[in-house]
User: Fold MmgE/PrpD family protein from Plectonema cf. radiosum LEGE 06105.
Amino acid sequence: MDSKEFLDWANKLTENAQAGVREEIAEHKQHGLDIFYMEGEIPIMEKSDGTKYEYKMVNDQPVIIRKIKS
Assistant:
């Protein structure tokens, strides 16, 4: 496998992984579950309706700090 073939393979692998994550997130939201991730240094909790909040963990529970404007 030459470097172009390897790069093409790596790009396809990345695309497939990202598509899989998008599908899992959509399925999570369909079940009304929150999605947790980071935007830079800010921890984000996204509700199934797409509303985003900054949060912090207190006693192993997410506590909303503020709503993030879309």
